[in-house]
User: Fold this.
Amino acid sequence: MPAFVASLSIGLVFCSVFLLEGPARYLFLPLGLSVGLSVMASYLLSRTLVPTLVRYLLPAELAHHHAPPGPFARVHLAFLGAFERLRQLYGDLLALALRRRPWVLGLFAASTGGALLLLPSVGRDFFPRVDGGQIRLHVSAPPGTRIEETERHFEAVEGAIRELIPEQERELMLDQ
Assistant:
């Protein structure tokens, strides 16, 4: 059952990548596809190839189990001992949390409330708006307009810009 739940959650994440829009879609679609396909391939191999290899390779490993441990086995045994101590510490902390349920629930409620207070400061857009202080206008004259007429057209546009934006706020104006 846990494998089914894991594969279902990965499938939901995999499908949610297709629901993204805009720049986030172009950024995360390839990443989501590669992660989703690799997790699915890993799941397939863990259910097919790995049990087959265990069936054929484990009896040979069990025959060497009673031999004195080599350097890699000693490192492995040291890691297992450290991991077991960490697991015991986690179990002790979990038992402590279960004995002090009101404190744990209060701490959880306080941290959740603090996070909810920060909610208005979270942006709604994936990419925040950036004001580079630059305005670009693309103005074009109808095809076939004489150069002199086009220059007058651009001068009128620049004049309108000079009226709207004060001199101290303008740094440079270019036209092509």
User: Anything to note?
Assistant: The two ends are 67 Å apart (CA to CA).
